[in-house]
Design goal:
Layout: H1 6-11, H2 14-18, H3 20-24, E1 31-36, E2 42-46, H4 47-63, E3 71-75, H5 80-91, E4 95-99, H6 105-115, E5 119-122, H7 124-133, E6 142-145, E7 156-158, H8 159-164, E8 180-186, E9 194-199, H9 202-212, E10 221-224, H10 231-243, E11 247-251, H11 257-266, E12 271-274, H12 276-283, H13 287-290, E13 300-303, H14 310-320, E14 324-328, E15 338-339, E16 353-354, E17 360-363, E18 376-381, E19 390-391, H15 395-400, E20 402-403, E21 406-415, E22 421-426, E23 431-433, E24 436-438, H16 440-448, E25 453-463, E26 467-476, H17 484-497, E27 506-509, H18 523-531
Parallel strand pairs: 1-11, 3-4, 3-5, 4-8, 5-6, 6-7, 10-11, 10-12, 12-13, 13-14, 26-27
Antiparallel strand pairs: 1-2, 8-9, 9-19, 14-15, 15-16, 17-18, 18-21, 20-21, 21-22, 23-24, 25-26
Helix pairs in contact: 4-5, 9-10
């Protein structure tokens, strides 16, 4: 018999844990969010207000006939409506996915076609992309716009009109921890993106790591710069901090070194979670810029998304007088698995050590644990609460990611004798550019849509700022040459169809794209040729490659 009380079952719901739980504990007046728009307009939102807005959205979903277990998506830039919709959907036990606002039509169609959502919450300027593929999305019954103008057009609904008509009281139902919660898509080296399914039980590990690794307490002001289109932006820009009742800074604009430093100072941010790309960009600023700002209240800085260069750590110690603590996790893990953290001596370049409750190991192809210093597959023993439960509509690929009781992360690494892990590289061809994972297959597919392109191959190569940059190789039809106009056409097409972050940094014309005898693109050969490195074994190449 399930002996959990109704209040305990409700407390397992992520939406309630981040809002109503604090109201019920008498902490509703505590500031949940300091919102600063891209235009620098500011507003504070209490946990009571966050609770009421998310309650209203939960009621909106019910009024629209969207039921528990069904799916909606947000397709938004950084904006408060993102949080109302995300938390309200989870209160209603509706699965919620988040889409990066730079996604193009192909990227949208792949993800929405796979997930079959009932609704998408977006804004008018982005809705045009949805409209152009909507005829191919029969399950999509509602497109809801957050724009202030309540004008309804093209079958769109007004977010704010719906909210104003909805009650701000909602009784969060009992929620089994295995109830599906958040859906994120991750790119692969081949094939369409995979939908990573999480459940409400993820709350436990996300909350624990926010408290024990990021070290947040009730007096902190926390700023996570990650977009909510990615797992860091939901796990640590929403769930972890708000489940602990922490005040968060959310800024609606993009990178601006002077503005970011001013926000850190004026908002008295105490814990900052950002990405190596942003830090490497800050490194290029003149040192005197940093001397203009008082960051004495900034207690801890954490980094995530890509390996953190030792040079960045040394720069931060010298210029900011701060340590930067690298953390590692994946969309599939849902929360931090391996990390550096305060009170743990930093080994520059190391991922750190496993967090409490997580067992990591370096395994060989046959599943044997490798000794310290020997590279192999970075694997995690299954059982942590934020572990993904499946790939949506792709159970066979999900099962392939496990080797006995171990989840195979797809990263190559080694462990030193003291238990610190060191990243080597991916075992697939996914490109990590500025912390965004780009599927080479998606970019190749977009390029092949152009009549001028006969073949395409896409790889990532090292870059001082982005970690990796996207390089596209194209074989053109007929006697065409790669002119500046055609180069621009290809870049714009990829940006519009996939996303701006997937746009190739360079396009290289080649007579043919190397493939093996089964027709698979040999991306390692392309990468080696670009970098001027040895090509290795070429015995499996097609004779005409």
């Amino acid at each position: 018999m399930d002996m959990a009380t109704t209040s305990e079952k409700r407390a397992q719901n992520i939406g309630y844990a981040c809002t109503g739980a604090h109201v019920d504990a008498g902490l509703g007046n505590r500031v949940a969010m300091r919102w600063i728009s891209a235009e620098l307009a500011s507003n504070e939102l209490s946990f009571s207000e966050l609770d009421r807005r998310s309650n209203q959205f939960a009621n909106v979903l019910g009024a629209l006939g969207i039921r528990p277990g069904e799916c909606i998506f947000t397709f938004l830039p950084r904006t408060p409506e993102q949080f109302y919709a995300f938390l309200g959907a989870l209160k209603a036990r509706v699965v919620v996915g988040t889409l990066f606002s730079n996604f193009g039509e192909d990227a949208l169609l792949d993800r929405l076609g796979d997930a079959r959502p009932r609704a998408v919450i977006t804004k008018r300027s982005l809705a045009r992309r949805i409209d152009r593929v909507r005829s191919q999305l029969p399950s999509l019954t509602h497109v809801i716009l957050i724009d202030d103008d309540p004008l309804e057009e093209f079958g769109h609904l007004s977010f704010w009109s719906l909210l104003r008509a909805a009650s701000d009281r909602f009784e969060t139902p009992d929620t089994d921890p295995e109830t599906r919660s958040v859906l994120h898509y991750t790119s692969g080296s081949i094939g369409k993106p995979k939908g990573v399914v999480h459940v409400h039980a993820s709350l436990q590990h996300q909350r624990q790591t926010t408290a024990n690794i990021l070290g947040l307490n009730s007096d902190d002001v926390f700023w996570c710069t990650a977009d909510q289109g990615w797992v860091t932006g939901t796990s640590y820009g929403i769930i972890g901090p708000w489940s602990l009742g922490i005040t968060q800074l959310h800024y609606g604009g993009g990178y601006d070194a002077e503005l970011w430093l001013r926000l850190l100072e004026e908002q008295r941010v105490t814990v900052w979670y950002t990405a190596p790309t942003a830090l490497r960009m800050l490194m290029r600023e003149p040192p005197e810029l940093f001397r203009q700002f008082n960051l004495s209240h900034l207690r801890s800085v954490f980094s995530v998304g890509e390996p953190l260069n030792p040079e960045v750590i040394a720069w931060a110690q010298r210029v900011l007088d701060k340590d930067i603590h690298d953390t590692w996790f994946q969309t599939e893990t849902g929360a931090i698995m391996i990390s550096n953290r305060p009170n743990l001596k930093i080994r520059p370049g190391s991922m750190g050590v496993p967090v409490p409750g997580v067992e990591a190991a370096i395994l060989s192809d046959d599943g044997l644990t490798l000794p310290p210093g020997q590279p192999g597959d970075l694997c995690l023993r299954v059982g942590w609460s934020s572990m993904f439960r499946t790939y949506l509509n792709n159970e066979s690929v999900y099962r392939s990611r496990f080797r006995g009781d171990w989840y195979v992360t797809g990263d190559k690494a080694y462990c030193d004798p003291e238990g610190h892990f060191w990243f080597i590289g991916r075992t697939d061809d996914v490109i990590n550019t500025g912390g965004h994972l780009v599927s080479p297959f998606e970019v190749e597919s977009a390029l092949l849509e152009l009549p001028e392109v006969a073949e395409s191959g896409v790889v990532g190569v090292p870059d001082d700022i982005l970690f990796e940059k996207v390089i596209a190789f194209v074989a053109l039809r007929g006697n065409r040459t790669l002119t500046p106009a055609l180069d621009l056409k290809m870049r714009l097409h990829v940006s519009n169809r996939v996303s701006s972050v997937a746009t190739p940094q360079q396009i290289v014309a080649v007579p043919s794209v190397p493939k093996n005898k089964s027709g698979k693109i040999m991306r390692r050969i392309l990468r080696a040729r670009y970098l001027g490195q040895p090509e290795g074994d070429t015995s499996t190449l097609e004779e005409n490659a």
